[in-house]
Design goal:
alpha/beta, Rossmann fold, Serine Threonine Protein Phosphatase 5, Tetratricopeptide repeat, 3 domains, 7-stranded mixed beta sheet, 5-stranded antiparallel beta sheet, 12 helices, about 20% strand, binds thymidine-5'-diphosphate, ANK repeat, Formyltransferase family protein
Length: about 375
């Protein structure tokens, strides 16, 4: 039996690692996305991983003739035509609770549509787009402050779990599946969002504006902009709008304050760099202000540094205490795979002061 893993990101890598426990390396085939440039970012490069592991990197045509093969599509960017394959063991992970949200941008549309949950689906591949029989699903709650990037990361995590849970059955051919209902089936095409021309509609209710901001906040692609300034999040005021919807009432260093159809809204300017700097420098008062303004303390910069990691790099114990008290994710690692604990350890090693390290260790 052979296995072919086609796709991108951490999900493809983690499932490749799983496959290596079950299959000979020679029987594992990798197909990477055309956009994979071999560089790790907020998601690791599958191409780089496969190359370093010396796996067979092939193209689709190469695997069509294999009859005894499992084909797994994990964020793969090409449409699959099952009639080209000799194998019938063709599976896809789709980032939604099918039958709803077939197609593209499933980190965008459920947020825009104010959904409170979504999920991941393991399904058979048929001739349609995400239309195959459903094998298994995991639901993901969408919290009211969750943004598109956070949702995408949840999809990746849940997708890995879904494959792991079903892997034995997949390779043993123990698949039970059910056809998708036509009821509740929705689809969004590539043209359904034009990320190159994003306009936030401010003549809306505060809640709808907030959903637009959340759905467009994916800093590795873009942040939504208002008055040409990148916005990280918004907070709906208790005060009802008396001015015309879309009127800018005031602006300061940190935010815009707008009237909407119903309640006034604060649109906070992106300050991730300043937040990371203030944690590194140990500016407790400024950090308290950012927390009060509801800035997300689990946000990651280009290298995956979080405010907590920045504080650990410099052994800023008061900042670490404050961040922990505010419930940050204590083990959120940077894109090199280093956790706050690792950074605190390095600081300890170079200064012989393990206060931060001990604090983190005791809170894990
Ligand atoms: P992508 O990897 O293209 O996959 P898909 O559309 O199949 O989900 O994009 C992942 C998410 O990133 C997508 O759900 C929405 C978001 N996104 C942006 O915010 N901006 C962009 O320019 C793109 C292409 C995607």
């Amino acid at each position: 039996m052979k296995i072919c893993i086609a796709g991108k990101n951490n999900i493809a890598i983690e499932i490749c690692k799983l496959a290596m426990q079950y299959f000979d390396k020679d029987d594992i085939y990798v197909i990477t996305n055309s956009t994979d440039n071999g560089i790790d970012g907020f998601q690791r490069s599958f191409l780089k991983y496969a190359y370093n592991e010396q796996l067979n990197i092939v193209n689709l045509e190469f695997v069509y003739s294999f009859s005894n093969m499992i084909f797994l599509s994990l964020e793969f960017d090409k449409l699959i035509n099952p009639s080209r394959f000799k194998s019938t063991n063709l599976y896809n992970i789709h980032f939604s609770l099918l039958p709803s949200y077939k197609g593209m941008y499933t980190s965008y549309w459920p947020i825009i549509n104010n959904e409170t949950s979504t999920g991941v689906t393991l399904h058979k591949i048929d001739h349609g787009i995400d239309t195959g029989e459903i094998i298994s699903q995991i639901e993901i709650p969408i919290a009211s402050n969750m943004n598109a990037k956070q949702l995408y990361q949840e999809y990746i995590r849940a997708g890995i779990i879904l494959i792991r849970d079903n892997f034995d059955n997949i390779i043993n051919g123990n698949i039970v599946s059910k056809i998708q209902s036509a009821k509740g089936s929705t689809y969004h095409s590539k043209a359904s969002v034009n990320y190159k021309n994003i306009i936030i509609d401010m003549k809306q209710t505060a809640h709808t504006i907030k959903n637009q901001i959340r759905a467009l906040n994916f800093r590795d692609f873009q942040l939504p902009k208002v008055e040409n300034i990148p916005i990280s999040h918004c907070v709906i005021d208790k005060i009802k709008s008396t001015k015309k919807a879309g009127t800018l009432i005031r602006e300061n260093k940190w935010c815009f304050y707008y009237a909407t159809i119903d309640y006034n809204i604060y649109l906070y300017k992106d300050k991730l760099l300043e937040i990371c700097n203030c944690c590194y420098e140990g500016n407790v008062e400024l950090l308290k202000y950012f927390i009060m303004c509801e800035y997300n303390m689990n946000e990651q910069d280009r290298e995956g540094n979080t405010p907590l990691i920045m504080a650990c790099k410099k052994g800023q114990i008061e900042i670490v205490k404050l961040l922990i008290a505010n419930g940050v994710e204590i083990s959120l690692e940077d894109y090199m795979g280093n956790k706050p604990l690792d950074h605190a350890f390095n600081f300890g090693k170079s200064t012989n002061s393990y206060e931060c390290y001990d604090l983190i260790q005791n809170n894990i």
